[in-house]
Design a protein that fits this description.
With 447 residues, the chain is of the alpha+beta class. The protein has a domain of 57 residues. The longest helix is centred in the N-terminal third of the chain and has 15 residues. GO terms for molecular function: scavenger receptor activity. This is EGF-like domain-containing protein.
Amino acid sequence: MCYLWNEAEGSMSANEFASCLIDYLTEKMLQFNRCIIFSDGCTYQNRNHVLASALRHFCKNQDKTVEQKFLERGHTQMEVDSVHATIEKKLKGVEIHSPLTTSKSSRVPGKQPEPLPECPSGKYGVKNCQKSCSTHCAGLRNPCSHIDGSCLSGCDPGYKGKTCNQQCPSGKYGGNCQKSCSTHCAGLRNPCSHTDGSCLSGCDPGYKGKTCNQQCPSGKYGGNCQKSCSTHCAGLRNPCSHTDGSCLSGCDPGYKGKTCNQQCPSGKYGGNCQKSCSTHCAGLRNPCSHIDGSCLSGCDPGYKGKTCNQQCLSGKYGGNCQKSCSTHCAGLRNPCSHIDGSCLSGCDPGYKGKTCNQQCLSGKYGGNCQKSCSTHCAGLRNPCSHIDGSCLSDCDPGYKGKTCNQQCPSGKIRRKLSKELQLLTVLDFRNPCSHIDGSCLSGCDPG
């Protein structure tokens, strides 16, 4: 094919030559994906950035591969040069009055070059097609150029180079080794298959999938996402790190550790086990719930509440403050120990014991029953009030007072007649008589 134009239509610059070549390639490469063009070293025609840019633009838009090869200096004779010589010889001595004359004169039959014998499919090389196409050429039956063995449809994944015989270097994979192994492939330098990028040693913790590019879904972590976040991670849906399972919002009360799988040790409770069980929890070592600190065996006497940290109110004592202080505790509002109910200020008169709930035994009275009833209280065993010692059955003859401890004064007699008391006056104050039965100690006056 020849392209002709006159000075009115164009010049002899790289733009015109590039346009002709691109037009030719557009028409001829409809059924081919790869083409090799041979050029001489003429700079303004073939070896310039205009033609290079045009070829690059063509290959990108048409999804084709064009390889331009330049003849060595001193060996630039090509078959097309004979065509040029034939045209020049034909036009010699011809008067040219219009471009049409040149066009007609250029249409001369030329000697067609003998085609090179083409290698069978799968073979290439200039010497009897001795070489085989690479088994890594992409496409059915691994098609390659019968001239230089370049793969016509590119390379299979995992290989690169013109003949697709170069395996992808470590860290690369896929068609022409354009892709990089995932940074989440386990192992030194993230090794992966040079063909499909599958990680050879599995995935780093927190990732899954053949190429380890999928992050673990919520609630999962570890190698290939095989592990589940602890149910004791704090927060909605127990969120944890997809790599090591550490709980992102800390632990639920009662648990500790990076993954919140360690229950609080005995005596501890709450978030990350920061709190201690109350020392007032009942039982050995004060056991309490590892979650909320509630005392498992109730409270020690004198305390109440879930965690047994509330002391009994005034007037109460014992386990969970169920008992009331004795009304016989001495003092305002009957104060007693919130633990065992022992009266802090002793007992009211007439009572004894730690809690002042024991009434004084017969014959005793007063604070803590320290005092004894008067031996001059009338009646069997000298009964008296357990509170103030007042004789319940009055006094023996000769004694008076609430507790019958006062002896009658000289000249007086106290005698019990039925249920009444009668005082007898002795005529002579100086004549003494017994304070018990009134008998005259010095006898009777005359008469």
